[in-house]
Amino acid sequence: MQNPLTLLRLLFVVFVVSISLAWIASATAQSGRRGKKSTTAEPASTPSPTPQPRKPDVEKDRVKFIVGIYRDGFSNIPLSYYTMVAQACAERLDKGPAVKVEFSSQNMTRSDAVNSARAEKEGFVVWLQLKVESLDNDQIANNLSQVYVEYTVLAATTAKTAASGHTYQQGFRKGGVVVNTPGTTRGNPVYSEQLLRQAGAEAAERILDTLKIEAPPPHRFARS
């Protein structure tokens, strides 16, 4: 017969071993659960969009020109010449990549040009005139070859003069004197019209050059 004390010791050892095994099993199960949670991938954070640089407003950055001309009804110059010269100037200005043009078809006096410039917040007003080159300052055009273009550029807001000058019928001038071009008739209306159109375009190129604005490729003017 076994000793009761020995039996109690044996039962105590079995109890301790059972408790230890149960604690180990519980700890292993909890560790497994924590491991599964740690393997769950967290959603990737969405990167903030990179701000794009502002594209330049090409239309807003272009220099505005308002082109008009004074029509003198007492100079014997055909009225169609005034419109033709103003349009030639406006078209040449408009070919500049940094320019936008507004053409005024109405008669524009000096006062009109000044008021128009003061009403604008930016840009320029180009005021054109057709003048007659004569020794006695008589503005009656006895010969169309005497007609030349005078331009004045007024700055917006202030209406101060930003540029001014003259352009002539280059085909009729040599050494500062108006002369005939071979194969043409002095004062021929068709030829004068062509040369005045060129003078209007040349005025535009001089304006762009004076104001340091990018100009289109230069036009080749006929010279004798």
Walk me through what this model shows.
The chain is of the alpha/beta class and 224 residues long. The protein has a domain at 58-210: Rossmann fold, CATH 3.40.50. It has five helices and seven strands, in the order H-H-E-H-E-H-E-E-E-E-E-H. Helix 3 (79-94) runs parallel beside helix 5 (189-210). The radius of gyration is 45 Å and the shape is rod-shaped.
The gist of it:
With 224 residues, the protein is an alpha/beta fold. The protein has helices spanning 4-38, 58-61, 79-94, 110-119, 189-210; strands spanning 63-70, 99-107, 124-132, 147-155, 161-167, 173-174, 177-178.
The CATH architecture of one domain would be 3-Layer(aba) Sandwich
CATH topology of one domain: Rossmann fold
Strand fraction band? 15-25%
> How is the main sheet built?
5 strands, mixed
Query: Could you tell me the radius of gyration in angstroms?
Result: 45 Å
Q: Mean of the pLDDT scores?
A: 78
Number of helices: 5
Record the strand order, biggest sheet: 2-1-3-4-5
Ordered list of secondary-structure elements with their pairings:
Blueprint: H1 4-38, H2 58-61, E1 63-70, H3 79-94, E2 99-107, H4 110-119, E3 124-132, E4 147-155, E5 161-167, E6 173-174, E7 177-178, H5 189-210
Parallel strand pairs: 1-2, 1-3
Antiparallel strand pairs: 3-4, 4-5, 6-7
Helix pairs in contact: 3-5
Main features:
224 residues, alpha/beta, Rossmann fold, five-stranded mixed sheet, two-stranded antiparallel ribbon, 7 strands, 21% strand, rod-shaped
